[in-house]
Amino acid sequence: MPRGTWVRFAVPDDPRTRIYVPETPDELAHARLGEALLRIANVVYVGHALTAEDLDRASTLAEAVADDLEASLASVPADAPRRVPWLGRAMSPRFDLTLDGDTVVGRGTLTGVHAGMPGFAHGGWISLFFDELLGRASMFADVPQMTGTLTVKFRKPTPIGVELEVVARREKVDGRRTRMTATLSADGVVTAEAEGLFVSLTPEHVNRYFDDPEEIGFTRRGGG
């Protein structure tokens, strides 16, 4: 299985265990392609030492793959399901996450893809990461949720290429609203923190915004 972001739930028989783990052939294929694209993007960032010949050869191969996939996509019916597992999203930071009670703890690395200033992560990528992480962690409610608000505070520059730790917690549930907090740390020092408010979708919302409710993998696997 490709490495990356999935949740190992504390309760082994919890049906939500499978939410973030690619398991079907199409999900595994998406995950494999996403991992390969992330590797390519990282090489491009750090590839200043590559020769023009190397880059031209890689560009030719990448263009051929893009042409092939676009041709295949053109033959797919417009109403076909658009489910893509998290690991298929090539630029998503790869963290191993463990859920225990109301807390998610994760360890992973931000790469050159996520860089801003040399050697450090871009604040926009950190905000995206918090949004993705808190959104996942907020799904304790057994229903899909979407971001209402997200506030990020940058305490120190966050380095790339070193192991980071993230801790997210569910602080309060008020009806359909869940308040989440999280910290991101490098070598035990908090570099950024976030607070988010996530709102549960009602069945009416799901039917209104999604042509195929199964596009929400949570609905498909978590029940309800």
Task: Quickly list its features.
single chain; 224 residues; alpha+beta; Thiol Ester Dehydrase, Chain A; 7-stranded mixed sheet; 7 strands; flat; disordered N terminus; disordered C terminus
Provide a quick synopsis of the model.
The protein is α+β, with helices and mostly antiparallel strands. The chain is built from five helices and seven strands.
What can you tell me about this protein's structure?
With 224 residues, this protein is of the alpha+beta class. The chain has one domain (6-222): Hotdog Thioesterase (Thiol Ester Dehydrase, Chain A), CATH 3.10.129. It has helices at residues 25-46, 52-74, 123-137, 203-209, 217-222; strands at 6-9, 94-100, 103-109, 145-154, 163-174, 177-186, 189-200. The protein has a seven-stranded mixed sheet with strand order 1-2-3-5-6-7-4, with helices on one face. It is flat. The two termini are 28 Å apart.
Give a quick account of the main beta sheet: strands, pairing sense, barrel closure: 7 strands, mixed
Per DSSP E runs of 2 or more residues, the count of β-strands stands at 7
Q: Kindly report how far apart the N and C termini lie.
A: 28 Å
The H-and-E topology, N to C, reads as EHHEEHEEEEHH
Q: State the domain count.
A: 1
Outline, from the CA principal axes? flat
The gyration radius over C-alpha positions equals: 19 Å
- Characterize the quaternary organization of these chains: single chain
CATH class: Alpha Beta
What is the third-level CATH name, the topology? Thiol Ester Dehydrase, Chain A
> Roughly how much helix do the residues carry, as a percent range?
25-40%
Low-confidence stretches: 1-19, 217-224
Instruction: Quote the average pLDDT.
Output: 78
Strand order of the largest sheet: 1-2-3-5-6-7-4
Per CATH, the architecture is: Roll
Percent strand: 25-35%
Strand-pairing-aware structural class: alpha+beta
Task: List the total number of helices.
Answer: 5
